[in-house]
Amino acid sequence: MIFLWSFIIGGLICVIGQIMFDAFKLSPAHTLTTLVVIGAVLDGIGLYEPLIDFAGAGATVPITNFGNSLVHGAMEEAEKHGLIGVVTGMFEVTSSGISAAIIFGVIGALLFRPKG
Predict the structure, then answer these.
(1) Who's near 20: CB < 8 A, 6+ residues apart?
(2) Tens of pLDDT, residue by residue, the chain (116 residues)
(3) Which of 23, 33, 40, 116 is least surrounded by CB atoms within 10 angstroms?
(4) Comparing C-alpha atoms, which of 54, 53, 89, 50 is closest to residue 71?
(5) Is 113 in a helix, a strand, or coil?
(6) How would you label 55-72 residue by residue, b for 16+ Cβ within 10 Å and e otherwise?
(7) What is the DSSP code string of 33-75?
(8) Inter-residue contact 73 to 90 (CB < 8 Å)
């Protein structure tokens, strides 16, 4: 049953993004930023963790989880280290994902030639 809920919740997040593209005519950058902020706000008010517990990968794979990770890391480190923990916590939690994106982007650029 977890696979079904994961598919449904992840699909709904993607549908929201597609509606933002089609109905509101938002650019990809605006849509991406809005979804990240939505994930951050949901984590800030304590609703994203229950969504992850319920939907698993359906809530952790979409871009909304990046906002969740930023806020979650900042809040954890703020409890330990105060104000400086807010900044370091965001980087600590998200650094592996950002590093992987940069590394795979460079590898892709080296291996493939753009058509144009």
Answers:
(1) 26, 30, 31, 34, 35
(2) 889 999 999 999 999 999 999 999 999 999 999 999 999 999 989 999 999 999 999 999 888 998 888 888 888 888 888 888 888 887 787 787 788 888 999 999 999 987 76
(3) 116
(4) 89
(5) coil
(6) bbebbbebbbbbbbbbbb
(7) HHHHHHHHHHHHTT-HHHHHHHHTHHHHSSTHHHHHHHHHHHH
(8) yes
Residues 73 and 26: their CA atoms lie apart, in Å, by: 29
Closest of 64, 65, 93, 66 to residue 78, by C-alpha: 93
| Cβ pair 89, 76 in contact under 8 A | yes
3-class SS at 25? coil
Nearest Cα neighbor of 34 from 48, 10, 16, 50 is 16
In single-letter form, the type of residue at position 114 comes to P
Q: Please choose, from the candidates 37, 33, 60, the residue with its C-alpha nearest in 3D space to the C-alpha of residue 49.
A: 60
